[in-house]
Every structure is written in structure tokens, then in C-alpha cells.
């Protein structure tokens, strides 16, 4: 059996400048920190990042912002990161702000083979600009398109060497949804144990969704 | 416990009286978070945080924080016995799908129809809406907890100058001066804060209020 385990250099070498990347995490919790540091160390630029937020300077996805690695950002919240706001206002960074529940459903639709999402969220607000309304049985909905990306970078709490993943508390967030919506999924985990160490009922992300798993910290 | 600002405490105490036993409640960051302090622990209320937990408990003791357990503001919390963790899709399905009984949110402005603006100040701060648009569009009840005025300017206005969070009117507005309910006919003044006159509320409100003959004082429990 070929192994999914890769070292950080191999993982980062898969991701070119300009790639589109789904990144898990909420305010730096449940964020794949080793993979993000790898992108910074390798000097990647021009990335499209789809994530809930950019945490704070020096934290989580904030480190990619600090390194000016991102050209386009799709997120629900940037208020905790003044550097993201500065780059947005100066024009260095394109930011698309999307309601959090819409964003996760767009990613879910992208990963589950669905053509879009119908939601009331955002109707009649600035979020509606450029989007279509759909009438169904007399109710009005806003049509939001599916989102997919070249890569998903995922953080888990426990993994086995097949790539089965389990998460901890609020570090789950967007991670399992994102594993469905990328061409290549790279995960890192607090621990990587032997096959069978996570009971089938406890597996949240089936290993077949994970293409590469970062070798555990030495 | 540090002493609370009396205006904020009054708002939090009054909002707490709206919370029904056994309900599922989402408290926004900032002032709404204070509401939890005024709910009896045996009331069976469960708190939801949109980053993926039902059963949010108090802040952890110093040194006891679990790095994987935070609230929607990213601050460490605990999980009560019986708590449930889940992904972001389920969390927002709970909100939009009618499973969340109440959300309490801060506000920048509310208009004459009871519509809230709370996610950006054009040209100044662009924090983003996070979960606010889903919460206002989807929760069964939405209560805005905010100061009645900011820098001498009314926050309850004819038309919001800041972008709306949702076109759905909120259920109730609780400020340091008043409790106001958006109705089909307009904004109804339901209660006034202790020793605050109806005249002062009218003066500090930037749009017309419906004033019943009797406007009782808030009960603060």
C-alpha cells in the first residue's frame, strides 16, 4: 500500500503560486498551522484563499496575509485583522465578504455535486449585488453558486494513516466540509495513529477524501 | 467579577427576562455575552455558538483553557455536560432551519421598520458580517441589545445610513432607555428604563415611536 504521509516540503511543493485554496479554521482554531507556515516559508504568492476569517496578524491565516501571499480572499469576517483591512483598502487584496452560513453551504454544494444554494440570507442587502433571485412556490430566495478549489488544507485532531480524520470541539468548523470540495486535499493532524485507532463511528472525514497527510511532528 | 457599566447591566438584565426556560440561545459578541450572567443556572437554557457548539459554558479558569474550544469571538469557553460539537454546515442549518429559539445581537442602527444594520461602517470599518446575516434572517426571535444613542446621535433612525444586515425586522430592541417592539404599524414603545421619561426617549430616538397611554418601567429581575 502506498502511504499518504508526506513531509512538509513535499506537501508545499504540490501547491503552486496562484493556486486556489480552501483553508479550515475559525479565528486560528482548527487551522492547519504547519501547512500555512510552509506556504509562508516557501514564499508562495498570488493565492486565492477561501476561509471563514483571517484571524489576527501573526495567527493562523493572518500569517499568509502578513506575508502578502493572498491576492483574492473569500471570507465572512476580517474585523479582527487590521492588516487584511489595510491590504483591502490599498487594493493589494481583493476581498469578497460572504455570510458565514452561505459560505459554508457554497463549499458544501461544491463538494456534494449540487448546482447552488438557495437562501434567504443576504436578500435585499449588499450581498445580493450581481446575484439572481429565484421564486419557488411564492417564496423568494437568493441563488448562491457552488465553490470548489484546487486545494483544501485541513486541520484535524486525530488521524490514522489511511487519512481518516476526527476533530475536537470548535476546531471542526469548516474542515470536514472543505475536504469534499477540492481537487487535492492535504491534512495535518495533532496525532497520526495506526489504522483502526479511530472507531468507524468516530470518523468524521473518511480517509478516501484525504490525498496527503502531513507526517506528525518529530 | 469586575463591576459592569450600569447601562450595559440594565440592558443585559432586561434581555435576560426574554429568555424562556429550555430554549436554545445564541449570544453575539460584546454586550449580548453579558446576558448569560443573568440567567438562572437551573433554567435549562443551552447556548449555541455558530463556530460549532451547543452547550457553551462559562469562561475557563486561568490555565484551564482548551485551545480547541472557543466562542464566536475566538475567546476560550467551556462546554457544559451534555454539550454537542458539530461542523459549520450543521451550525448554520440550526440557525436558518428554525432550530435556534433566540439570538441577541449588538447593533449600529435600527430603522423605522425594525431592520438592523450591524456589520459595517462604510469608509471606516469593514469587519464583515460573519454569522450576523444568517442569525437575523434565520433565528426564531432576534433581539437587538444596544445603547440608545452613540456620540449624541440616535441609533434608532428613519432609514439606516449603514448597510442592512437583513430585510427581516428584528423582534425586539432593548436599550439603556427603552424596550421597543417593531410592529406592522411602526415602532412601539413598550417600556422605559427606571426614572427615564417618555419625553427623553422620544427626544433621543431618530424616528417616530408609537406611544401607548401607559408606558411601564422595565422590570429588571
In short:
The complex is a heterodimer of chains A (218) and B (221). Chain A is an alpha/beta fold and 218 residues long.
Highlighted features:
heterodimer, A: about 220 residues, alpha/beta, Glutaconate Coenzyme A-transferase, 9-stranded mixed sheet, 3-stranded antiparallel sheet, about 20% helix, B: about 220 residues, 10-stranded mixed sheet, two-stranded antiparallel sheet, 14 strands, about 25% strand, globular
Structure in words:
The complex is a heterodimer of chains A (218) and B (221). Chain A has 218 residues and is an alpha/beta fold. In chain A, 21% of the residues lie in helices and 28% in strands. Chain A has one domain (5-98, 147-214): 3-Layer(aba) Sandwich (Glutaconate Coenzyme A-transferase), CATH 3.40.1080. Chain A contains six helices and twelve strands. With 221 residues, chain B is an alpha/beta fold. Chain B has a ten-stranded mixed sheet. Classes of the chains: A alpha/beta (218), B alpha/beta (221).
